[in-house]
Design brief:
The chain is α/β, with parallel strands linked by helices. It is built from eleven helices and nine strands. A hairpin with a 2-residue loop joins strand 2 and strand 3.
């Protein structure tokens, strides 16, 4: 087929939308759950105007959707396919780009001896009541989706909530996936206070991609 075929032109719209580091950062954050433009701009480190322009491009490519509530506009990824696409894109980059492989190695070295948790064994231990799973992301991300059985303890609240956590069983912390620093930091805090703690490298998106159980809303 010739390069001016409409097929290629429309597929290129997706390529154009994700050919931007700020837009990928916005997509990565929206995988965790819906956010207002103001929250997205703050988290990603963009001006409000700049974030709005990048979100407009993502919306034109049908990768995100927007909903207005009063004076606030909330964005979310369009559907599960967008989450899967982002995961596949990052996986391709991890496999093909030496620079990203170096970043991954550096992150593992920085994490040190915080060994990853086997997810299948974790499921069995959660079911048996042998482990406490902590979601250390912001509370709004927990409400959007979290690992079944996890409790929400955002990292910024961990110090003041330590006394509510049991010391007689292991604690497993997770956040936004293998490149997120929140869970490793939470584990360092917990171990420093005498808790047995480990990191789950998966985030919600990785858990979902493997067909493992997730739930939404506040904890019971």
């Amino acid at each position: 087929m010739k390069s001016d075929n409409p097929l290629f032109q429309h597929v290129a719209r997706i390529g154009h939308a994700v050919a931007s580091a700020p837009r990928l950062a916005l997509l990565d954050l929206l995988r965790q759950g819906p956010r207002t433009v103001e929250a997205l701009a703050r988290e990603v480190g963009l001006s409000l105007a700049n974030a709005s322009q990048h979100l407009k491009v993502l919306r034109q490519a049908r990768l995100v959707e927007a909903e207005k509530h009063g004076t606030f506009v909330t964005y979310r990824i369009s559907d599960r396919a967008v989450d899967d696409f982002y995961g596949a894109l990052r996986g391709l980059a991890e496999n093909r780009l030496a620079e990203l492989q170096q970043i991954a190695r550096a992150f593992v070295e920085k994490r040190g001896n915080l060994e990853p948790v086997d997810r299948q064994r974790l499921l069995a231990r959660v079911h048996a009541g042998e482990v406490t799973v902590l979601d250390v992301r912001p509370a709004e991300e927990y409400r959007a989706a979290h690992i079944a059985g996890a409790i929400s303890v955002p990292l910024k609240e961990l110090e003041v909530r330590l006394e509510t956590l049991p010391k007689n069983r292991e604690i497993v912390a997770y956040c936004r996936g293998p490149y997120c620093v929140l869970a490793p930091e939470a584990v360092r805090v917990l171990r420093g206070r005498g808790y047995r703690a480990a990191v789950l490298e998966d985030g919600v998106s990785e858990w979902r991609a493997r067909g493992l159980p997730l739930t939404e809303g506040e904890a019971p």
